[in-house]
Amino acid sequence: MGREEKIARSVVRAMTHPEDKTDGKPKASRLGRILALLSTLLSLYCLVLGKLRPADFSNLRRKRWGVDDDDYVRSFQPDGGESADEPLKAIGDMGFSGSTFYATADQRYLVKSIPRYAEHSFFSQDLLTPYVQHMAAHPRSLLVRICDFLAVSGWSLGRLLRTAPSHHIVMDNIMHGREAAKQRGDPDWENWDLKPTSYFFPERDIAGGALTSDATKSQLADEFHDKIVLRRDQAEDLFATLEADTALLAAHNAVDYSLLLVRIRLPGPAAAVSEAQQQQEPPSWRTGVPSADGKHVFRASILDFFWAKHKAQPKLMTLLIGLWNLVTRSGHMSITTTPNEYRARFLGMCRSIVEVRD
């Protein structure tokens, strides 16, 4: 079993067995308990994970988002089919943070590792309570729905050597339904990870990008060279939601977040039924908003809001870029600018890709 599979197993155990229960089960022998303890202590990848603030996330899931507890846990259990031993599937690393992503077998949820201390400490210590309150008060928020927050507990060799991520978030997957659409023969879905591209990116801007591989540059933010065609009421609702969401992030010093945009091309008028309509839910940016020209359904979510300017690593990066700018005057990076300035450019980017039709 490889590293990714072992990490996935530790996540699955935390999601399906949040507490060790011995009621009604024979207790392990003393030797068995000792061997289990040694196995845990010597493990490099199968860390013992526990849920942080489980009651808060459970309340969001059940009372605000209408997620059934049994259905939620079932997404992390083997389905008895070909993927019975793989309830989580690794889908690769994402960008420069060292994070890895897993998807549940039913594609409803994603698990993202948060290996950097500056990021998981910001979420747990600074943003978690405001996030929970904001999501409870703003049911149409575009901030990604975080359903659980997992953190390492207890000691092990893997925790000491940092061979496996110590923290993970479980979040809603707005790409859910893509595989079913492929099986129906519908056009494949398109997606973009959007950030303001006017900032200084060393991988792109130093020596015209000649010093960096194409693979590295491909991890930079995408560009959307088209328009989201919306009715005026749709656009106003979108902008108001973005204003509220980014105000929360700016108030807590977050920068460098991105907009995940999904475009689903409708094969014809008869197929213009989104997942939201099928489930008798009002259209939303999570389930699908139909474009005003009848050609597409769009989904969107704000991701990666864990980089806060007041943490030690961001402060160091800001200092280094400040020294660099004494010579080159290249300008700020998206991770070293101020929260309000990043918010302004982010909102400007979002407005620039929307076309309003009365």
UniProtKB/TrEMBL annotation:
<feature type="compositionally biased region" description="Basic and acidic residues">
    <location>
        <begin position="16"/>
        <end position="26"/>
    </location>
</feature>
<keyword id="KW-0547">Nucleotide-binding</keyword>
<dbReference type="InterPro" id="IPR027483">
    <property type="entry name" value="PInositol-4-P-4/5-kinase_C_sf"/>
</dbReference>
<protein>
    <recommendedName>
        <fullName>PIPK domain-containing protein</fullName>
    </recommendedName>
</protein>
<keyword id="KW-0808">Transferase</keyword>
<keyword id="KW-0418">Kinase</keyword>
<feature type="domain" description="PIPK">
    <location>
        <begin position="1"/>
        <end position="354"/>
    </location>
</feature>
<dbReference type="Pfam" id="PF01504">
    <property type="entry name" value="PIP5K"/>
</dbReference>
<feature type="region of interest" description="Disordered">
    <location>
        <begin position="1"/>
        <end position="26"/>
    </location>
</feature>
<dbReference type="InterPro" id="IPR027484">
    <property type="entry name" value="PInositol-4-P-5-kinase_N"/>
</dbReference>
<dbReference type="InterPro" id="IPR002498">
    <property type="entry name" value="PInositol-4-P-4/5-kinase_core"/>
</dbReference>
<dbReference type="InterPro" id="IPR023610">
    <property type="entry name" value="PInositol-4/5-P-5/4-kinase"/>
</dbReference>
<keyword id="KW-0067">ATP-binding</keyword>
